[in-house]
């Protein structure tokens, strides 16, 4: 989580995040986020790299100017149920019912 202008926590450093498993090619899941505050192209949010699924470039070194809008998002991921085992589904259901977080 990143908190703009927060002085009691160190700033979150930028990173390149890629959800592709090179050992399991093909469609795995759809990921996105839902903005809960207004946002736009000038507030330093998500940077999508054209062709990023093919290469990792030095584009992550480009610094986007800081905006004055707090970003508040929920990350979502959807995958075909056929990619999950019965054990996966039981565990995800338990996590949901007990309001615990889990990975995609």
Please characterize this protein's 3D structure.
It contains 1 helix and 2 strands. The protein is mostly loops. The chain has one domain (1-79). A two-stranded antiparallel sheet has the order 1-2. It starts with 29 loop residues before the first strand and ends in a 7-residue tail after the last helix. The mean pLDDT is 71.
Topology of helices and strands:
Blueprint: E1 30-35, E2 73-78, H1 86-97
Antiparallel strand pairs: 1-2
Strand order of the largest sheet: 1-2
> Tell me about the biggest sheet?
2 strands, antiparallel
What's the average pLDDT?
Answer: 71
N-to-C terminal Cα separation, in Å? Answer: 17 Å
State the share of residues found in helices, binned by percent: 10-25%
Q: What is the overall shape?
A: extended
Low-pLDDT runs: none
Question: How many runs of DSSP E, i.e. beta strands?
Answer: 2
Rg calculated over all Cα atoms: 17 Å
Looking at how many chains there are and whether they match, the oligomeric state comes to: single chain
Structural domain count:
1
Order of helices and strands: EEH
Strand content: 5-15%
Alpha plus pi helix count: 1
Helix-and-strand structural type: little secondary structure
Concise description?
With 104 residues, this protein is low in regular secondary structure. The chain is 12% helix and 12% strand.
Features:
104 residues, little secondary structure, two-stranded antiparallel ribbon, 1 helix, 2 strands, extended
